[in-house]
Amino acid sequence: MSVHEVCVRHLPTFVPIDRLLSPHAFEEVEGVWRASLSTRDAADVQARLRGRGLGGLPTSVDVDPALPRAAVRHARLVDARRRRFTTPGFLRDGVLLDEEGRFSLTPEVLADGLASGTRGRRVFDLGCGAGGNALAFARAGAEVVAIDRDRSRLDLARHNARLCGVEARIEFRHLDVVRHAAALEEEAAVDDALVFVDPPWGLDWDRLSCTLDALPLLRLVLGGFTGRELLAKVPPSFDPDSTPGLVPTAVFGEAEGDRCHVKFLSLRGRALAFFARQAL
Predict the structure, then answer these.
(1) Strand 229-234 to strand 194-197: parallel, antiparallel, or no bridges (unpaired)?
(2) What pTM, to 2 d.p., does this model score?
(3) CATH 2.60.220.30 is the classification of domain 3-82
(4) How far apart are CA 208 and CA 248, in angstroms?
(5) What is the DSSP string of the chain?
C-alpha cells in the first residue's frame, strides 16, 4: 500500500484541526500540519480542502508522492456525493423560503448554537430574511427585533415565527438598516442589546479569501454601532484580522456530509471606534 506525506498549510489557529481533518491524525510542525496517509486518505483530504480558504488565506495541500489521477477523481466524486447530505435548514414542515433563503438560511441547529446564552436579552437582527436566526434567538428566550427592508421576506419570517410558536417574542420591522442605522444604534444602546448581522454573501462569494469590502452591510454595522456587542455570521474564507475586537469561531455542520466542513465563521465582540473613523 502506498504511503503519502501530506502537508496542509494556512490553517488558522481558531479552527479545530481534529474536526477539520477528521478522522486522520495530523501533527503540527512549525505551522504546517503533517501526516503519513494512504492514497485513499490523502486524496480525501485534498478533495475536501480543494479550492477553499479559511480565515482569509487559501488552504494549501501538498502530497508527496503525487496522487494518481484516478484516486483524485474518485475522491472528488465521493466528496461531491457526501455534500448532498448536509445540515438541514428549518426542521419543521410548512415553513416558507424564497430563493435567497434556500441558500443563505442558517441551519436550525447551528442557529440555535449562535443564539445560546441570549435568554432575557434584547437582540436586533439586522436583515432577518426568512427568519432563521431571529427564530433561534426567540427560542433561546431573547426579545427579538427582526428587521428587513424587503417586506415580502419579512412576511416569510412572520409566517415562520407563527408556525414555530415564537411570534410573541419577535417584533418585526420593515426598515432599511442603511437609512436608519443611527436611530437603531441609539435604540440598541439603551439596554446594551446584542446586534446580530448576517450580511448577504450571494452564491458567488470568494471561497479562497473574503474581505470586509465584500460585505458592505457588516462594514456599515461596524462603523455605526461603536461600543455595541455584535455577533456576525460571515463566510469561512473571511479574514477576521480585518475586524479587530471581534473573536472568530469556526462553525461546522452537524450532518454526515458536512460535519468536517466549516459552514461559516461567527464573529463576536464589541465594535471599536476604529471602524467609526474608517466610515468617515
Answers:
(1) parallel
(2) 0.92
(3) no
(4) 17
(5) --EEEEEEE---TTS-HHHHTTTS--EEETTEEEEEEEHHHHHHHHHHHTT-EETTEE-EEEEESPPPHHHHHHHHHHHHHHTTS---S--STT----HHHHHHPPPHHHHHHHHTT-TT-EEEEET-TTSHHHHHHHHTT-EEEEEES-HHHHHHHHHHHHHHT-GGGEEEEE--TTTTHHHHHHHHHHTT-EEEE-----TT--SS-B-GGG-HHHHHHHHHSTTSEEEEEE-TTB-GGGSTTEEEEEEE--STTTTTSEEEEEEEEE--HHHHHHH-
Is the separation of the CB atoms in 251 and 266 below 8 Å?
A: yes
pLDDT band at 273 (very low <50, low <70, confident <90, very high): low
Q: Give the residue among 13, 18, 8 at the shortest CA–CA distance from 252.
A: 18
The label of the residue with cell 461559516 reads 264
CA 204 to CA 265: how far, in whole Å? 17
Q: Tell me the per-residue pLDDT of 147-174, one tens digit each, with 9 for 90 and over.
A: 999 999 999 999 999 999 999 999 999 9
CB-CB contact of 185 with 225 (8 Å): yes
- CATH number of this structure's domain 99-279, picked from the four choices 3.40.50.150, 2.170.270.10, 3.30.70.1060, 3.40.190.10: 3.40.50.150
Residues 15-33, mean pLDDT to the nearest whole number: 95
Question: Which phi and psi (to 5°) does residue 83 adopt?
Answer: -70, -10
* Residue of 157 and 224 predicted with greater confidence: 157
Does this chain's domain 3-82 share its CATH topology with 99-279? no
